[in-house]
Automatic annotation (TrEMBL):
One of its GO terms (molecular function) is S-methyl-5-thioribose-1-phosphate isomerase activity. It is an enzyme of class 5 (isomerase). InterPro entries: IF-2B-related, IF-M1Pi, IF_2B-like_C, Initiation_fac_2B_a/b/d, M1Pi_N, NagB/RpiA_transferase-like. This is Methylthioribose-1-phosphate isomerase. GO terms for biological process: L-methionine salvage from methylthioadenosine. It holds the Pfam family IF-2B. It comes from the Bacteria. Keywords: Amino-acid biosynthesis, Isomerase, Methionine biosynthesis. Gene3D superfamilies: translation initiation factor eif-2b, domain 1 (1.20.120.420), Translation initiation factor eif-2b, domain 2 (3.40.50.10470).
Amino acid sequence: MRIAGRHYRSVWVDEEDGWSVRIFDQTRLPWSLEILRLTDAGQVAHAIRSMQVRGAPLIGAVAAYGVVLAMRADPSTAHLDRVCEALGRTRPTAVNLRWALERMRAALHDRPAGRRAAAAYAEAAAIAEDDVETCRRIGAHGLPLLREIAARKAPGEAVKVLTHCNAGWLATVDYGTALSPIYQAHDAGLPVHVWVDETRPRNQGAALTAWELGRHGVPHTVVADNAGGHLMQHGEVDIVIVGTDRVTRRGDVANKIGTYLKALAARDNGVPFWVAMPHSTLDMRVRDGLAEIPIEERDAAEVTELTGRTADGRIETVRVAAEGSPAANPAFDVTPARLVTGLITERGRCEASEAGLLSLYPEKA
């Protein structure tokens, strides 16, 4: 994606030194665009845990580069295993993290120590390139859904999409998952308008989705999380498209907290509810999402406090909850497959079921 005319990805190897890793500090957006330089696996683990980088596909790619930096410092098998274990503990819900680390470990474990650093750079780059092409293809397979809606509308009338959290290029290496069809529709001249859920408690929609849609010139409106059902009742939503952090064998979907409520409202109002899923998010080892997917519980301060920019330009954090009141902060929820219209993948679209998934991924049987 482009920012001020320059193309960026969400993770890249520094062009000047040729070995360190660069990322955007997403905790500073949308108020400032700051680029961080990561030089060791500990910094990578901190960036993932603190959500300086977030989004299931991007977490996996950045973790792969964490292994790269670890192998540059110490290419021993013991260090490889320790680093993969440590990085794997940073975020428990998104399966892309485990997928990327397992791929890195498999690529490096049987190589001589002296060749591991170079092989690690190559494998991490391959993971990043795979994500870019995967997300591009998700957009290509999701675009017909928007075209079909546009064909039923009056000329020039926008296709109205509601999305939740951030599943754009900031959550991936490039293009995004749920936003990829939207970007491709906009670039093709299809009129589209996006309802952007604020996505409490971290406000990834208001801060990140709105920021990147604005940079790309896509018409959008930020709404409170609880406005989605109202908009659907009044015919203001043609389709819901969200991303996902894990999809189970039978099609259950784990995504940012609040996704389940959008799916319920969509079902009640006859609005299609689609989930954009890269192959790295599919977890065939899990069948029952409610029973088996671990749900990350994050710091209560994310609920009780808000950070924003004051009228005089200062970035301030303020408490919004009553003093002394405790808060719970489950970061994800699970939407049962029965509420999902279908999955948009890099191989095509399918129903959210074991049969649907195996129709596109027969090798997973």
